[in-house]
Amino acid sequence: MFESHFQSFEEPESGVALTARLSAFREELLRRKLTGFAIPRADQQQNEYVPPSDERLAWLTGFTGSAGLAYVLIDQAALFVDGRYTLQAAKQVDGNAWRIESLVEPPPERWLETHLKAGDRLGFDPWLHTSSAVERMQAACAKAGAELVAVDGNPVDAVWSERPAPPLGPVTVHGVEFAGESEASKLGRINEELARLKADALVLSDSHAVAWTFNIRGADVSHTPLPLSYALLPKDGRPTIFIDGRKLSNSVRDHLEQTADVAEPAELAPMLRELAKTGATIALDSATAADALTRLIKDAGGKPLRGADPVALLKAVKNTAEIDGTRAAHCRDAVALARFLAFIDAEAPKGALTEIDAVEALETFRRDTGALKDVSFPTISGTGPNGAIVHYRVTRKSNRRIQPGDLLLIDSGAQYQDGTTDVTRTIAVGEPTAEMRNRFTRVLRGHLAIARAVFPDGTTGAQLDTLARQFLWQAGIDFEHGTGHGVGSYLSVHEGPARISKLGTTPLKRGMILSNEPGYYKTDSFGIRIENLELVVEKQIDGAEKPMNGFETLTLAPIDRRLIDVAMLSAEERSWLDAYHARVRETVRPHLDGPTQLWLDAATAPLES
């Protein structure tokens, strides 16, 4: 009945079976006269989703999380992961071959300082690290009396005999009806930023920035319509896009050539070298530009100018067409969500459904819209103790049956051509405990505090983050992830530079779309998260002395009333939630069949005291 076209539930290779790869890799290091090597979970552009040909860390260690780093020395090896992946890493890697360490505190370079010896030679691939990451490794090597060595040709690739070929996903034009602005207009705005930076040229090393600037989309990585590519934008003259020509149809090439020259990726380095020879100042994105680019510019006599990619902020502020498209995408998604939630309510209490069944059902309801391009990330479907694993990904081995008394946490999203969605709901299966209702209501109150927030121009995500945590803190609890991330327009579901977190330093601007997703996780018991996407909008306040902003909630899906302790809510919170549910009902009900309409009526009824 249900199936998944975009997600796999197979268990990745892991553990002791991979230890032979580590031995072969060490032999290759010795052959190159290296005593160690750094392996990041990264491609040349620091993408969140990387093509199979760049999954070097997973191939060598077995760890498949989205963030990680390994240091391999001849006599020992360490894998560094953040708090989201500690449990996952322990299950996936061979504990006899690898130490699992923190990616955050202390920083991985500290490990190098204590484990490298004087005279050691630590290798790294300069195409897979940013310059700031290389500088941190350089400092650690210096403290240990070791040498940091940039290598030509990655030694992992030398022993990875079955490495997949790089992707050749076809590129499509993202029409102006979706993009809302022509390429020429965008290039004009970027040129203004170039003048402000006093740069002679800008390298777009982030493929998302290339896709946005030139109104194209691709199919090179999972879950994000990304065409892997670079662009060089000079202060004067035509820009050049560097992309494998095999990805381009004649019509797409014609589209690109209206505003830019098109060249093969291998031509980037020589063209950049020629420009640098003139002493040009060339701006680079410090977050995504490979250290190899900085080195190339310096060695040729140019001046690399590292900083924030100016396109990131331009891309984050959505225009009218993108906002209208995103609203339409969320309305479409809401119908699929309502059908899914009604299905779960009817079937889960019987005890036959599993986590995978839930993933396949939700994807099927989304495909039924006729507009689904992909899921925007692998669906997190965790019931009972699996729900407490923040970035849990169900496999056939871990697949758990959904049982009465459980909470089901399901975090999912869709890629539609007019917008990207991301939504989390926590569902009570059977009768929830008093503890579950208390924790859920505290998370809900934090969620509502963000949704109802009013703030002046210039406010950052860090200033709002506390609002989401206050009711959890009052009970001595918290959650170990950010409250919200930026979201693209038929691009990455995790988009910078703005976010709602302790580290969110970018001011929130009207037109930005961010998630609002506080949570609570009780290890080995249950997990709770409530997530909607929010659009930053103007707020009119009588007597206001400065411009004020707030949020328009884009996501339209019932929040489980059975998990709410109504007595804990203020009158204002109850009023907001009742109005939200009325809006969900009014928007979604006409698109549902009779039984699902009745379910929605009950799920969105006003709260009772």
Automatic annotation (TrEMBL):
Coiled coil: none annotated. One of its GO terms (molecular function) is metalloaminopeptidase activity. Residues 326-537 form the Peptidase M24 domain. InterPro entries: Creatin/AminoP/Spt16_N, Creatinase/aminopeptidase-like, Creatinase_N, Pept_M24, Pept_M24B, Peptidase_M24_C, X-Pro_aminopeptidase_P. Its EC number is 3.4.11.9. CDD domains: APP (cd01085). Keywords: Aminopeptidase, Hydrolase, Metal-binding, Protease. It holds the Pfam family Creatinase_N. Residues 548-607 form the Peptidase M24 C-terminal domain. GO terms for cellular component: cytoplasm. Residues 21-153 form the Creatinase N-terminal domain. Belongs to the peptidase M24B family. PANTHER family: XAA-PRO AMINOPEPTIDASE 1. This is Aminopeptidase P. It comes from Rhodopseudomonas palustris (strain ATCC BAA-98 / CGA009).
